[in-house]
Amino acid sequence: MPSRAANYPALSEDAFIERASARLEEVYGPRRDEVMRRLMTLLMHHRSALDSLPRPTWSERDQILITYGDTITDGERPPLEVLDDFLATRLNGTFSGLHVLPFFPWSSDDGFSVIHYREVNPKLGDWQDVRRLASRVDLMVDLVINHVSRDSLWFIDYLSGTQPGRDYFIEMDPETDLSQVTRPRNSPLLVPVSTRRGTRHLWATFSEDQIDLNFANPDVLLEFIGILLYYVQQGARLIRLDAITYLWKEVGTRCVHLPQTHAIVRLLRAILDFMAPGTLLITETNVPHQENMSYFGLDRLRPDRERQDRERQDHDVDPAAMPDEAHMIYQFTLPPLLVHTLTSGDATTLSEWARSLPALPPGCTYFNFTASHDGIGVRALEGLLPAHELDIMLELMHRFGGYVSMKTNADGSDSPYEINITYYDAMKGTRRGADAWQVERFLCSQNLMLALQGIPGVYFHSLTATLNDHGGVERSGKLRSINRRRWPKEELDELIDSRSTPTREAFTSLKRRLNIRASEPCFHPEAAQRVLDTPAGIFAIERGPLANGRRLLAIYNISDTRQPLKIDELNDGDWYDVLKDGKRWSPHPDERDILRPYRSLWLVQP
C-alpha cells in the first residue's frame, strides 16, 4: 500500500445531480424539484470561490489536535494568534490537523449555542487568524447544525413573527405525547417562549438556550449549506456535524437516526464531493456503538469485498460506487472502554469489541479519541458492559474527583449519560484506588489509542495531563467545565519546561510518540487491523501487512502487574522496535517473556 490514500476524483455534475435529487426526494418528496433548483443556484454562486482540485484523503501522517480557541491565553493577544504560535514553536509538524471548537459568537455551552455562524468571536480573533491556522494545518470546523442560540437573529425574527426566522423553529403543543423521544439531557424537551402571538412551546433537545431548527423547512437546509460552503472557503478541510443524530423530528418516533437525517448527511457529503473534493465530513453521534456505525452507511455498501480490497490497493476508486455518507465517525466506544480496561486490568471486553469492528472500504475511517471537550460518554457501552461493571466504573470516577451527568429515559427515570473528569485523572488508579502508576497508565491509554485503525484526535488537556478543574465547575455551574481549563501561557510554558512535572512528561512523551507514528506506514488509516490472542492483562493488535509485506505489532500491558508475553506472532522471525529508533528487538533476558506494567511495544517486521 502506498503511504497515502488516493486523490479521490470529484463527483461529476451529472452524478451529483442524480445523487442530490434522490436525497432531496427522501427529505422533501414532491418539493424536490423546487429545492433542487434553489440548491444548484446556491452552489453555482459559491463555485468560483472554492478549490475544486481533489486532495489526498488521508495518510498515516494524519493526527488531529482538539482545542478551544482560547485554551491558551497570553495577556491581550488574540487567543487564536497565541494558539498559532504554540503550534509553530511547540508542535511544529506533530499534528496534521487542528479542530478548533466553535469560535463563533455564542451565548452558552462554551460555543455550542451559536449566535452568528459567519462571524468569529472577537474575543478570540478574526477570520484572518482562522485562515492563518488553516494554512498551517488541516482545519476542522464545527457545523453546529441542530440548534441555535436564543440570541441569534433567526430567533429574534421568530419572536417578532418576521421572516426568515419565523418558520425556522419547531412549535409543539405541550400536551403532545413525546415520551418516545430519545433524550441526551434531563432538562425539559419543550421550552415555553413568549412571542407576539402569545406563548409558544419550542423543541430544545439540549437546553433552553439551544433551540432546535426546523429542517422540514428547506430554507433552513439551504441556509446551512451556504454556511458549510462559507467555512470551506475560509480554509476548512474537515467539517464536523455536531449533534447530527437529533436533526429530524417526527412525533411518534425516537427522533434519532431518522431516514431524513441520514439523507441530509448524504446530501452534504455529495455537495462536498462535488464542490470541494477531499473535504471530509465527520459525524458526532454519542450513541450506542451499532447506531453510531450507521453513519458510514454500511447498509448501503457493496457486498463485493474482493473488489473493495482491490480498489483499496490500486487506489482506482470510482466515487459513484463509494459509500456516500460520513467519511469519518467518532469512535465513541473507545474512551469509556479504555477507562474500564485500564482500571480493571482486564482487556477481554476491549479485545472482543475491537474484533467486532468491520473492515471498512475506501473513503471511510474512524476518528479515534480518548478525551474531548465533552465528558466521557457511556451510552456507547450499552450491550458491551453489564450494568454492575458500569456501576463500578462510575463509582470509581467519583472517587477520582469526577462527576456523572444524567439523561432522562422514556419512562421518566434518569440514567448515566457521561462521566465528567479529565482523562488524566480518570487514570489515577485502579479499582483498588489511587496509586503511583497514574502517568504510566495514562500514557498507555494514549499509546493504545494512537495505534488503532483510523485517525487519532488528541484533546489539548490530554497533551498537558491536566488535572480536574473543580474551580471551573464552581465558577460556571457546569460539570463539563472540569475538563475545559484555560491555560495562561506563562504557567503552561513553565510546566512544560520544568524538569519533573506530569505536564512535561505527558507533553514530551506524546509528542515523541506522535512524531514516530506519523512516519510509520502501518498506521495508514486503511491498513488492516487484526486483534491478537493474548492473556487478559495484554491487549495487542497487528496493523498490516501492507502490499510490501511490512506489518506492525502494537502490544500493551494494561495492568499494574507484570504480564506474560505469550504472543505467537513474536516467534515469526525478527522484529524491530520503532520506539527505539528501529533497532532490532532484543529484550532484556528478564523481559523476554514478560511485559512490565503499562509498557507499550510497537514492533515492525519490514
- Number of DSSP strands? 27
Specify the structural class: alpha/beta
**What would CATH call the architecture of one domain?**
Sandwich
Q: What's the rounded overall pLDDT mean?
A: 92
State Rg: 24 Å
Enter the CATH topology name of one domain. Immunoglobulin-like
| CATH superfamily (homologous) name of one domain | Golgi alpha-mannosidase II
GO molecular function: glycosyltransferase activity
Pfam families: Alpha-amylase
Protein name: Alpha-amylase
Keywords: Glycosyltransferase, Transferase
List keywords for this structure.
6-stranded antiparallel beta sheet; globular; 27 strands; 8-stranded parallel beta barrel; alpha/beta; glycosyltransferase activity; GH13_cat_dom; Immunoglobulin-like; glycosyltransferase
Describe this structure in words.
GO terms for molecular function: glycosyltransferase activity. This is Alpha-amylase. Residues 63-517 form the Glycosyl hydrolase family 13 catalytic domain. Keywords: Glycosyltransferase, Transferase. It comes from Salinicola socius. By secondary structure, the chain is α/β, with parallel strands linked by helices. It has a domain at 526-605: Immunoglobulin-like (Sandwich). It is 33% helix and 18% strand. The protein contains 18 helices and 27 strands. The strands form 8 sheets. The protein has an 8-stranded parallel beta barrel, surrounded by 4 helices. Strands 20-21-22-27-24-25 form a 6-stranded antiparallel beta sheet, with helices on one face. A 3-stranded antiparallel beta sheet has the order 13-15-14. Strand 20 and strand 21 form a beta hairpin. Helix 1 packs antiparallel against helix 7 and helix 14 runs parallel beside helix 18 (502-518). The chain starts with 12 loop residues before the first helix and ends with a strand.
